[in-house]
Amino acid sequence: MADAFPILVSTQWLASNLEAADIAVLDASRHLPAANRDPRAEFEAGHIPGARFLDLETLTDGGSPVPSALPTAGQVAERIAQLGITHEHRIVLYDDSAVKTSARAWLALTSHGLANVAILDGGLARWKTEGHPLESGVNEFPAAAPAVLRDDNNVATKGEMLANLETGAEQVLDARAADRVFGSGIDPVHGGQNGRIPGSLNLPFSAVYADDGTFKSPAALRAEFEQAGVDMQRPLVATCGSGVTASVLLFAARLAGKQDVRLYDGSWQEWEADPATPKAQGPADVTGS
Known about the structure:
Blueprint: E1 8-9, H1 11-17, E2 23-27, H2 39-45, E3 52-53, H3 73-82, E4 90-94, H4 102-110, E5 117-120, H5 123-129, E6 155-156, H6 158-167, E7 171-174, H7 178-182, E8 201-202, H8 218-227, E9 236-239, H9 245-255, E10 261-264, H10 267-273
Parallel strand pairs: 1-5, 2-3, 2-4, 4-5, 6-10, 7-8, 7-9, 9-10
């Protein structure tokens, strides 16, 4: 029996397996507006040989009240089919984004039942640093038959997050920088006030990476979560500004061996915009609120 496909692969592994017929490499780069970068143009200028452009920005559920919501199963199935990908492929995601958007793509694909999906450790930056080849242009692949995927994102809604304030059944971990979580000024990314859901813990997503841009070891990741106040034996909901960097924490938690994690997809962007939701600002108290 073949070994299960890992959720994280190294650049060396990909370089050795790039020509395999069942490998599909997807560029999942997406950037914040302030970055003033065009991911499609950058992909066409230089990408990992054979890669396909996922166009992550278009994979959002426009029918959801949640800003920039995760895509539906139908959207994922259609996009994957357009790229010529089937259930038989092993998918490797990479990005060249400051907010590590391959984790968001990983969540979008795997939460709808796609198996054999991995992230390239260190992304395009590490691939280039190590001197691996790039190619330009656009690769064309014959479309595949759309896969039948389940419509189950397993995300927390605002209503569930409000209920959790009473029950405390799930720990809430915010992936934003501490100044946005504990500050009281204007959020520099999404506008509105800085602040947090009451009771939230904080682990900036950047803390899960080593200096070379690769993920820290499982043991080191567990230590980061525990230092942030997370009980690794209790369920966890990750949040951030709009659900992107929280996906990084979910992926890191999985690397650390934790399975009972989910995303509050609306995150602070949805929570802060509702005048009826309670907010906390300023330094955390001893309970983390």
